[in-house]
């Protein structure tokens, strides 16, 4: 029987919206947003899309009208009652009322601010300006929209069975990865793949496959909407945008040197336990840890998000030892460009030396490599970053100079202030 | 929106019927049935299930109650109006009114006769007795039911995502085969996979994939129900049961020697063109052709269904030449245990020498090899054959002694009458 009502209702959709909820975003954006709302609410920032994969000509692939429709649709979204109830009532990281009432009231009234879109050559310039807590909420949906529109452009030319086989291949690939991962004793793995996912439905499928395939070894997803829908843990702590904006706001070199620690000082006012995770690489991991105040060694763990991951973990282990901490009590979260072989390798290498966890992103939710001609569905490296704050440019150095950003002169200044010398370049895949 | 009515209606199904239509069967059964109805209508026959793959303990795998429910359901089926209209009105092999009115009236009133089911050790003894045109219609549904029940028994223990990935793998495999086959210039390929299919839905999927992937190089399906549903050609001519029963009915050695040619003499009264296809291997291809009357060399082509296929084709080519026929005007149909590499090899070898066609069976519609532990979904060699006619046992020699059947003494007699010497054994996969 055809459900006529459903069919007629479906006619009413003008577009097929890619992002349908304000909490179809990473959990750490909400944690950071609350922190920013409390501490730097009026800071003016600019976020900008940056396509590191310049060989992908986004403006040729994606129709500007369609892109505007999707972005406009996101601007029409607001938190619905069920989402609000979930954020207010759910337990996150073992804590009730993670989100304070004043923040929730603000969030319930939030509509995302305007965007600026311009075609420049074969790329789009897409920027967002305004107060930090509002603008920052654009990052994940903007990325997800661009990734999915590019995918749709490729899929449009395919037949029904070609499409079915495409997804059959992708499912088979993910399941084979899961079958490998289920061999690992004591694995702890979360989905971090929202921003560069193939599509919402595909990410949701991947999460369900992980639930069935990995059971308790799958610890949750960074995507709030999916965490709510599938009744699993929402996962995430904080990101580079906090030290980048704090650093840009610093009035002089001395304040700049202090900025990354100020971020964490503000953070620990609100969070404890597994939310006290250091992200040390914004201006070089080694220097950050060497100069860190002693209280930071008491934090629960560290997230390794650039550079050689094993090397990053060894630096952290040595640092904890040098501060009299037992690394076996500490958590190390790997989250940079992971795929199965790397996860297995790192798991074997570190499982008995620290508490291990993995945040698996793009190659979980968007591994369509090799499936279509010219590899036109392969994921690529798209980011959306704070590029200025309080009228000054932001800078990121990272442990991988291929991930660095900011004006050359400012980069030099930051390198001097943070005593960052030569770094090893690593190819950025995703 | 949930369609409540559909859901409630679905509650009413006591079983999930495997065969839901009397024309969910091979087209050649209907052609043969009409021929039998005209020429040997009152012949008493017995058909029996034969599991050549004795390592597959069907009675352990399949619940007897479930099997009876499925067989009983088939006995409840009759031709519906749409099916009858299609058989009466459609063009088959370029001919209108392929099925005569008297036959259609009989078919419209047909219900399949009773079955006899008994468990013997770890196998089922399943037999059908009665008049030939009725009993012969059991062959395909009986096989399809047993194959699918065995599959269901294995699938029952699998999780939702495991199942999805299983089908994803199977789809990927078929599509890869199709992608290889589409490279072949002038390929003509039909689906012959009803009897040993994984399931009806899976066969239907495979057919749709072939339509999309191979376009005009996919010439049709042997399955009438799917041919009707998908509006494509129904394909098939005749099978071993005709010479086997005619031979069993022969009163003496002289009549026996003539029997296989009598079958074709009866056949050509009704059929011409691409339906005049010789199936020469029932009692040895070489001997059959050597002793054939000259009029048979005027037939359109030959179907190679046992033995080394290339050798069989060479024998036919030489025979046509010896009878003054041009092999390039003749059709050779390969239909025994085909899979992609063999199809490609035979296509390259014969495409410029004869008109080529392929009937692809089990490894199209049931290639689940290697997907589950113990290869419990791999297809196996199950047949349902006429074992006696007019009170006398039937005999098949084939070009592969592993496919031979009949009482040893009768086999010896047939070998003597048809002058069959030593034969080469070939493994029967499916």
From TrEMBL, chains A, B:
The organism of origin for this protein: Aliiroseovarius salicola
Stored InterPro entries: N/Namide_PRibTrfase (IPR041525), NAPRTase_N (IPR040727), Nic_PRibTrfase (IPR006406), Nic_PRibTrfase-Fam (IPR007229), Nicotinate_pribotase-like_C (IPR036068)
Keyword Ligase carried by entry: yes
Protein name in the entry: Nicotinate phosphoribosyltransferase
Enzyme class: ligase
Entry similarity comment: Belongs to the NAPRTase family.
Record's keyword terms, sorted: Glycosyltransferase, Ligase, Phosphoprotein, Pyridine nucleotide biosynthesis, Transferase
Coiled-coil blocks: none
Top-level taxon: Bacteria
Entry's EC annotation: 6.3.4.21
């Amino acid at each position: 029987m055809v459900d006529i009502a459903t069919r007629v209702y479906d006619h009413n959709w003008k577009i097929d919206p890619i992002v349908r909820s304000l909490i179809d975003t990473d959990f750490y954006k909400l944690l950071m947003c609350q922190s920013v709302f409390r501490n730097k609410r009026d800071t003016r920032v600019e976020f900008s899309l940056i396509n590191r994969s310049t060989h992908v000509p986004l403006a040729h692939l994606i129709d500007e009208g369609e892109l505007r429709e999707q972005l406009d649709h996101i601007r029409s979204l607001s938190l619905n009652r069920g989402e609000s109830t979930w954020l207010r009532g759910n337990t996150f990281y073992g804590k009730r009322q993670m989100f304070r009432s004043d923040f929730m009231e603000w969030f319930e009234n939030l509509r995302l601010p305007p965007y600026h879109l311009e075609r420049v050559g074969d790329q789009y310039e897409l920027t967002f300006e305004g107060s930090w807590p509002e603008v920052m909420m654009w990052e994940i949906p903007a990325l997800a929209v661009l990734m999915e529109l590019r995918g749709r452009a490729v899929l449009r030319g395919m037949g029904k069975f070609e499409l079915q086989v495409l997804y059959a291949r992708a499912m088979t690939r993910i399941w084979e990865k899961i079958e490998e991962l289920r061999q690992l004793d004591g694995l702890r793995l979360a989905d971090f793949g929202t921003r560069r996912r193939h599509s919402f439905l595909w990410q949701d499928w991947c999460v369900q496959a992980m639930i069935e395939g990995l059971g308790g070894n799958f610890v949750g997803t960074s995507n709030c909407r999916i965490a709510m829908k599938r009744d699993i843990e929402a996962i995430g702590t904080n990101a580079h945008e906090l030290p980048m904006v704090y650093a840009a706001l610093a009035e002089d070199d001395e304040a700049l040197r202090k900025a990354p620690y100020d971020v964490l000082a503000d953070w620990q006012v609100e969070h404890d336990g597994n939310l006290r995770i250091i992200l040390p690489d914004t201006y070089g991991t080694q220097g950050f840890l060497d100069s860190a105040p002693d209280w930071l060694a008491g934090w629960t763990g560290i997230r390794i998000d650039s550079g050689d991951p094993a090397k990053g973990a060894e630096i952290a282990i040595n640092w904890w030892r040098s501060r009299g901490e037992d690394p076996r009590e500490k958590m190390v979260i790997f989250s940079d460009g992971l795929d199965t072989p790397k996860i297995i390798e790192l798991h074997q290498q570190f499982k008995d030396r620290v508490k291990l966890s993995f945040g698996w992103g793009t190659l979980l939710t968007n591994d369509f490599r090799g499936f279509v001609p010219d590899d036109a569905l392969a994921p690529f490296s798209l980011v959306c970053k704070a590029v200025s704050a309080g009228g000054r440019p932001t800078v990121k150095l990272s442990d991988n100079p291929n991930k660095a950003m900011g004006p050359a002169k400012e980069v030099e200044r930051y390198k001097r202030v943070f005593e960052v010398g030569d770094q090893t370049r690593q190819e950025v895949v995703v």
